[in-house]
Write a sequence for this structure.
C-alpha cells in the first residue's frame, strides 16, 4: 500500500511528515510518497536510517499557504504540493493521500481533482473527538455551510460506515446535533432532517445536545459544517485553556511541583485520552479515493497516527461501502 | 428594590431560592417576593432568621415542569409560579424577576406577559461564560433559532449595553461567531450580518471562532440561538467531564490524595473562575422589564449570584438604554 503525503503542509513541515514517514515504513508495512521540494526532502531524509525503496519523492516546488483563496489556488497552482498529491491519487499512483496544510486547499483538491463519489451530494470532513466513552465522530466538521437535510443524512451514513470499518464499532449510534433532546427541538434544518434520519439505514438515536459531545452519547454526531466547526474549535480552545491553567498551577512553586509528582501519571494518562494527536487526521468522506486532513499543528507523532488511519481507511474498504450505500439510496429514490 | 423569584422552579427548589433570598435581604439591601405554594414556602422560611418585612410570599399553586410545551403551558396555567411572577413584574409589583425553572416557560412568560421592548425584533438569552480573560457574554444562548441578520445586530447592541453597565466594561468588543476569522468566512446568516455589524453602534472586532470562546477574545459573542445553545452545552459538558476525571485521578490512591493536598488551592481557585455559579443567571435581553434565567441546577450560592445580578441589571438602567438605542435605530431606518 502506498500513502501519498503532502510533505510541505503544516506548522512542522517538512520535519514532522518526514520523521513520521520513516517510522511508518518501518512499523506499518506501507510505502510512502513524499510530495514537495526534492532537495529539501532529500536533505531532511538524509538524517534517517530506513529501507530506501519504501520512501520515494515526487517533486512539487510550490505550496498553498493558509492565506490563499483555496479553490482559486488549487486551480492556478498546478505545482503546489497538495495539487500534485491529489493528481497522483486520482491517477492511481497511491492508495490514499494526507495533508497537514491549508484545509480549504485540501478540500478543494479532494472535490475538484479526486472527485465526488456518484450520488454523494457533498463530501464532508469527519473529525474524531475524544470523549468520556472513547473517540466519537463529528461530521461535518467544517467542509460545508448551509447544508440541506439530505446532506446531513449522507454524513450520518458515511460516518457510520467509517466508524464501523475503521474503529470496529458494530452498529455505530448516530445523534443529530440540536438545541434540545426532544424530537420537536431544533432549527429548520434539524427539524427537517430528523424524520429522514429515522428512515435512513443508520442506528439513529435522536437529537443530542452540546453536552453529549464530551459525554460520548453518540458514535457519530451529524451536523452542518458551520456548527461542527464551532464545536470542534470550542473543544480545542477549552482544552488549551484548561491545560495551560493546570500547568500553571503545578509549576507555581516548589511546593506545587512536589504535589505534581504524585498525580502526574494519572493526569498524563487523562491528557493522552484527550490528545487529538492520538486520533490521527480527519478523513474527507465522499471522495472517490481516501483523502485525510491532518491537523495543521501536527507533530511527527500526530502525522504517524494519521498515516496509520489512512492505512485502515484503505484496508477496510470504506469507500466501496459508501459507494454501495449511497448509490443504493439513489436507486430507491429513482425507483 | 423588589426582586420577584419563582421559588418553585429548578432542581433545588424551594430550598435554594429561599436560602438565597434570606441571604440577599440581609446582604444586598433588596426585598424579595417568593412566588409559590404559600404553605411550602412558609415552612421552608421558618428555619431562618431574617427581617420579616423584607421577604413576602405570593401564592401560586401550580408549576410548569420541564416536559411541558412552554408557550401552551404559559397560556393555560394561570396559576403557575412563573406565570404569576411574570404578571407581577408586568404590573410593577417588583423590579425584576428570576426563575430557575423550565427555560422555555420563562422565555414564553417574558415574551407573552412581560412583553418586548418596541423595536426589539426578538429578545435573546444572554449567558455569561468563564474565559481566560474573565466572564464573556454569549448572546443568543438559546432563545431563538433561524435568526435573521438584524436579530444578531440587535443581540450585539443589547449585549454590549449589558456588559458596559452591569460588568463595567467601557467599550465591550463584539465578535461574530463564525467558522473562520476572515471576513468572507461564514454561513449565509453570518456573511450577511458582518457588514451590518460594521455599521452598527458597537465595538465590532470581526469574525471569531469557537476557540475564542474560552480564550475570551470578545466581550460579547453574537450568534444564532441554535449555535449559542450548542456552544454553551458543549462547554458545560466538557467542564463536567474534565472535572470528573481530575477528581478521579486525585482520589485514586493514598499516594495521589497526598499529591492533591499540594495543589488543591490552585486547582480550587481555577475551578472557581470556571464555575457558572459565580456568574449569576442569564438575562433575557429585549423585554420591557428585567427577566433573569437561573441555571436549573442552581444551588443557593448560584441563586444568590443571580439575585445580585438582577439588582445590578435594575440599578444600571440597562433597559432604558436598550430602549434608547433600539428606537434610535428604528428612527434612522425610517428617517
Amino acid at each position: 500500500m502506498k500513502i501519498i503525503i503532502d510533505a510541505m503542509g503544516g506548522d512542522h513541515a517538512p520535519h514532522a511528515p518526514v520523521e513520521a514517514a520513516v517510522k511508518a515504513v518501518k512499523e506499518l508495512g506501507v510505502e510512502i510518497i513524499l510530495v514537495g521540494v526534492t532537495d529539501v526532502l532529500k536533505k531532511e531524509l538524509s538524517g534517517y536510517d530506513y529501507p530506501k525503496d519504501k520512501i520515494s519523492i515526487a517533486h512539487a516546488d510550490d505550496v498553498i499557504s493558509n492565506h490563499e483563496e483555496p479553490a482559486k489556488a488549487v486551480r492556478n497552482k498546478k505545482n503546489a504540493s497538495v495539487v500534485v498529491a491529489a493528481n497522483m491519487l486520482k491517477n492511481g499512483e497511491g492508495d490514499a493521500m494526507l495533508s497537514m496544510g491549508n484545509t480549504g486547499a485540501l478540500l478543494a483538491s479532494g472535490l475538484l481533482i479526486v472527485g465526488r463519489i456518484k450520488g454523494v451530494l457533498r463530501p464532508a470532513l469527519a473529525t474524531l473527538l475524544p470523549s468520556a466513552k472513547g473517540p466519537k465522530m463529528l461530521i461535518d466538521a467544517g467542509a460545508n455551510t448551509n447544508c440541506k437535510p439530505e446532506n446531513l443524512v449522507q454524513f450520518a451514513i458515511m460516518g457510520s460506515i467509517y466508524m464501523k470499518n475503521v474503529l470496529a464499532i458494530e452498529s455505530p449510534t448516530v445523534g443529530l446535533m440540536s438545541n434540545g433532546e426532544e424530537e420537536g427541538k431544533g432549527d429548520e434544518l434539524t427539524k427537517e432532517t430528523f424524520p429522514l434520519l429515522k428512515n435512513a439505514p443508520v442506528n439513529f438515536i435522536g437529537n443530542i445536545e452540546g453536552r453529549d459531545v464530551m459525554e460520548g452519547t453518540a458514535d457519530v454526531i451529524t451536523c452542518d459544517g458551520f456548527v461542527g466547526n464551532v464545536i470542534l474549535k470550542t473543544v480545542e480552545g477549552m482544552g488549551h485553556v484548561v491545560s495551560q491553567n493546570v500547568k500553571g498551577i503545578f509549576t507555581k512553586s516548589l511546593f506545587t511541583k512536589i504535589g505534581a509528582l504524585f498525580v502526574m501519571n494519572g493526569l498524563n494518562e487523562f491528557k493522552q485520552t484527550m490528545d487529538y494527536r492520538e486520533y490521527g487526521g480527519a478523513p474527507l468522506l465522499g471522495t472517490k479515493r481516501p483523502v485525510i486532513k491532518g491537523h495543521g499543528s501536527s507533530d511527527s507523532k500526530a502525522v504517524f497516527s494519521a498515516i496509520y488511519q489512512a492505512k485502515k481507511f484503505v484496508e477496510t474498504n470504506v469507500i466501496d461501502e459508501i459507494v454501495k450505500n449511497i448509490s443504493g439510496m439513489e436507486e430507491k429514490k429513482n425507483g
About this structure: Chain B touches chain A through 57 residues (CB under 8 Å).
